[in-house]
Structures are given as structure tokens and as C-alpha cells.
Design a protein that fits this description.
The structure is a homodimer.
Chain A lengths: L4 H12 L8 H12 L5 H12 L4 H25 L4 E2 L2 E2 L1 H4 L2 H19 L4 H29 L6 H26 L4 H28 L2 H4 L5 H4 L5 H9 L1 H9 L4 H14 L2 H22 L5 H16 L3
Antiparallel strand pairs in A: 1-2
Helix pairs in contact in A: 1-4, 2-6, 3-4, 3-8, 4-6, 4-8, 7-8, 8-9, 9-15, 9-16, 12-13, 12-15, 15-16
């Protein structure tokens, strides 16, 4: 993300100035720990980009950008408990390093702290910003619930799947941009256009996630390719495969293949039945919709517009 | 709580008008469930009382009062997971009725919803109200952490214990009153005086809780008297006993008594060593301090002032 280096370094500097060295240390140490594990800081960068796009003062967007980053990390901490994940960014999750109670309470405190960072925006937009943020936060909870629900369903529709990833992932990108735009004094409708850009780009990002997991280049991907296939996850590829070739899919599933043989067989099947082609088409449709929304935001700063265009392209076509 | 019947019925009516019948039901049903279990609604009543004390419009305080009730219930849901509590208000806790993941996520959504209810206050006080609420919410998390920390300590000082109960319980009563006062257009210093009233009354309430658990009338108390004694909890009585008669306390603990014999022996010991007297004195000191703070708030509405005085008396002297 060459484009956003400047934003990300501003965010890292602001984060480094925050004091999490507070009492009780059992509560604040885990917060400091999870934030120190890094991550790409893409979501807070979106707050700065949204502000910059309308030539707002980036200083005004710094603490609100931490609200988005803090919220994102809160959701990871609690999701990791629910998913019983052992690692996050290659290090132990909070509930593994400490215990579940510590992770619950640290997450709660992070959610509250995200609201504290948000309280720094100008009073003229405070109610609106809180409204967007709380609506989004609730949607992220709903998305996590749908995701958990899907595990026990035998099949999921394309529509339900896209709605789940919209809630769980995409709306936070949209809200980050919308809040940034409002801080940058964009009009309400310009900020909504930017929200739509973020949501569609976020959806394209998630579709590409499914594609990468199945077809990524093992040398670039960083994770083991085929993880979703091995876990029988209901990805978009699986949903399309069930739609296009239900009989063949059922037959393939009955073979009870394991390991690389299973991954290879499903890769071949996803390609042959047209699921891969359809997922790519869906991704491109979402990317196009995102770029249309960006254009309709009628923003001032062409340089940032180009950055956001490149960013959406990267989200949709990244190889890792 | 005869005094507050009007407030409580307003709160129940407002709560009944909220729609928790939303999708995904796996997320919203537990929220609806826990709110339907009742409770005294004392905390939201404090928002209305704070507003009424300054002759503000109670309608403006209704949704913000739900913010306090929703937050309180959020903290119960997550604390119940951490304490592995099976029952809440005589019914199954959420993590018992569903599971831990449901309870974590429902709690998260409740915390967000509490902020949504708060967003209804007038824009002129919104930033201040959010500041008070978030500070308080973080303190409640800190109080819960201290409470958990105390379990693994061999002894706790009076100062640390009072600080723990201040954070875990008292500040929320204070914040409810302070926010209500601001909605009722009290001055900033009047609202702070009311906060101090709430905090000291809340502390007195918790001290009385310790006294009731050890010395309550079994017929009125509702719970089994002596629960804290049987669990060797570090209550204020135990802290004073350790201060006044450490050698005798150690000797009594070495006897390894169980059941009623243990309860009776500790009751006798708490009285003889002066721990009960000191706890009563502490409670009365806190009550006096609360009433002084109320007087200094210089409020308009004498009827509500009397109600709040009676309320603080009831919190400190209740028998159940």
C-alpha cells in the first residue's frame, strides 16, 4: 500500500503517543499487546483518506482514525474467542496468552475506548458521526452472528453470503471513509457516496479473499492455499458451485478426499463448473460499482482520488 | 422504592416500546430476554430523578435512561460469564441458556445500543454526556478487573476495596444522576455535585450489601445469609477484622469450620472485634457525605430532593 504510507505513518505516530500503561495492568496490558501486533492499519487510513479527499485538516482525523482501529481490534479480540483462534498476526491471541475473561474484558474496554477517540470530532458533526459509528458497530456484531449461524446451515444463498460479508467487514471500511469525509467537511451526500465506495470495495476485497484462499500463489499468499476447501467452508466459490453443478458437487463431496488431493480436486471443479469465473465477475462488478460511487462523490483532491482508485484495485486484485 | 414508582413506570413503558424483535434473532433474542428479567431499574430512574431535580423535561431523559439500563445489563451479561454465574434474577444467565459466544456477542451489541440511546440528548451537551458515559464505562471495566484480581490476593486494604466498589458499582449511579442533571439543564457544577451524591450513595449501598450478607434477617434478605463468609470473600467486614484482630482471625480461619457453624462463628467474631461497628460507621459516613453533596447541588425541586434523600437512606439501610 505505497499510496497510503504517509497516512499509516501518521497513524502509527499517533498510536505510539497513546498511553496504555495504566492501572489495572491486567486490563490494559492485553490492549497494548494486541495493538502492538501491527496489522496494515488500512481502516484508520481510510478515515484520513476520506478527510484528505475533501482537503480537510488531517490533524482533526487522527484520533477518530484510532477509534476505527480500536474498534477493529476489539472485534478481532472477541471474534478470536468465539472462533477459538490460537494465533492472530502470527502471535498468540489474548485469550490464549492470558485467558478468556481477560479477553472479554479487554475487548469491552477497547470498544469503550473507541467511542472515547470518536468524541474528539467537531461538535457540529458529533451526533452524525456517533450515529454512523454505532450503526456500523451493531452491524459488525450482526455480521459475526450470521457468520456463526452459517456454520450450522447446509447451504447459504449468494445474497445471504454477500450480506454477511457486507456486515462483518465492508461496512466498517465504508464508515471509516464516511466519517473521514465528514471531518473533512464533505457534504452529507458526498460522505454517503464515499461510504458506498468503501462498502463495495470491502465486498470486492472479501470476494478476492475467497479466490485467493482457493487459487492463490502459495509463494505469495502467505497462508496455506486451500484452507477453506479443507474446512468445507461456505465461500462464494462453494455457493456458486452448488448453484451451477449441485449433482457433481455432491458426488465430489461424497468422495471424502483429504489433504492436497481434496484441494486440487475442488480447484479443478470450481474452474470447470464456472464458479471461479462467476466469482471473478462478481468481484469486478463490485469494483466497478465502488469506482462509480467514488466518482459520484465529486471530490476535490484528484491525487487522493487516484490513491483511492488504486486502493480499490489493490483490494480486488491483491495476491496476498 | 415507593418514591420512584412514577419514574420506573415511565422507564418500563419506554422499554416496552423498543423493538428487539430483529434479525439475526440469535443476537437480539438474548438481549430481549435479559431485559425482560426485570430488575429494579434503579439506575435509569436516577437519570429521570437527576433531570426532575432541576425541573427538566422528563421526555428528554427517557431514551438516555435506557442507555444506562442497557449498559448495566451489558455489564451483568459479561460479568456473569466471567464469574461463571448460572442464575441472574432467578433465571438462567445468557451463557447458560444459550452459550458463551452468544453471551459475548449479545453483550457487545448491548454496549453499542447503550451508546445509541445516548445519542438522543441535545447537541449542546452531547460531547459532555458521551465523555461522562465513556469514562464511567471504562471505570466499570476497571472495577471488574480489580474485583477479579482481589480473588487471588491474600488480603486487600480498605482503600483498595472501596476503590474497587466505587469503580464497579458506584460511578454508574453517579453518572446516571449527572447525565440526568445535564439533560435537566443543571449547571456543570450542580451536575458534578449530583454525581458525588450518587457515588457516595452507591458506596453506602455496597457497604450495606456486605453487612446484609453477614447479618441480614433470613426472612427478609431473600438470599442465604452468610454466603460471603462461606466463600471467604474479602468483604469490608473481613478487611476490618484483619485490621483489628489479625491473630484471632488467623486462628478462626485455621479451625476450618463449615456451614452454619462457620457463619455463626464469623458473625460473632465480626461483632466482637469491632468490624461490624466500623462497617456501620463507614456506611453512615458515606451516607452523610452523599447527603452533603445533594445539599450542595442547590436543586430547585424540593420534592425530588426529598425523594433522593429517602433513596440514599433506603440504599444504606435496606434489609433486602
Amino acid at each position: 500500500m505505497e499510496n497510503f504510507k504517509g497516512y499509516i505513518s501518521l497513524i502509527e505516530n499517533t498510536l505510539a503517543r497513546q498511553d496504555f500503561d495504566q492501572e489495572p495492568i491486567e486490563l490494559y496490558q492485553p490492549i497494548s499487546y494486541i495493538l502492538s501486533l501491527g496489522g496494515k492499519r488500512l481502516r484508520p487510513a481510510m478515515v484520513l483518506a476520506g478527510c484528505d479527499l475533501f482537503e480537510g485538516n488531517l490533524d482533526d482525523a487522527l484520533l477518530p482514525s484510532l477509534a476505527i482501529e480500536m474498534f477493529h481490534n476489539f472485534s478481532l479480540v472477541h471474534d478470536d474467542i468465539m472462533d477459538d483462534a490460537r494465533l492472530r498476526r502470527g502471535k498468540k491471541t489474548i485469550h490464549e496468552k492470558w485467558n478468556t475473561n481477560v479477553a472479554i474484558l479487554a475487548g469491552d474496554a477497547m470498544l469503550v475506548k473507541s467511542y472515547q477517540y470518536l468524541n474528539q470530532v467537531d461538535k457540529s458533526i458529533l451526533a452524525k458521526v456517533y450515529e454512523i459509528f454505532s450503526k456500523t458497530a451493531l452491524e459488525v456484531c450482526e455480521g459475526q452472528q450470521y457468520d456463526m449461524n452459517f456454520e450450522s446451515l447446509s447451504s447459504v444463498s449468494e445474497e445471504d453470503y454477500l450480506e454477511m460479508i457486507r456486515l462483518k467487514t465492508a461496512v466498517l471500511l465504508g464508515a471509516a471513509l464516511q466519517i473521514g469525509a465528514l471531518i473533512g467537511k464533505a457534504s452529507s451526500s458526498q460522505a454517503v457516496a464515499l461510504y458506498n465506495f468503501g462498502v463495495d470495495a470491502g465486498l470486492a476485497f472479501q470476494v478476492q479473499d475467497d479466490l485467493l484462499d482457493a487459487f492463490g500463489d502459495p509463494e505469495k499468499f502467505g497462508k496455506k492455499v486451500g484452507g477453506d476447501i479443507l474446512q468445507d467452508k461456505k465461500t462464494l466459490l462453494m455457493i456458486y458451485a452448488r448453484e451451477f453443478a449441485p449433482v457433481e458437487l455432491a458426488a465430489l463431496q461424497k468422495e471424502n478426499l483429504v489433504g492436497d488431493a481434496k484441494v486440487k480436486a475442488f480447484q479443478k471443479f470450481f474452474i470447470e463448473c464456472g464458479a471461479e469465473t462467476k466469482a471473478i465477475a462478481k468481484r469486478e462488478e463490485l469494483l466497478k460499482s465502488a469506482l462509480n460511487a467514488l466518482a459520484s462523490a465529486d471530490a476535490k483532491n484528484d491525487k487522493v482520488k487516484t490513491q483511492l482508485t488504486n486502493f480499490a484495485q489493490w483490494l480486488s486484485h491483491r495476491d496476498h
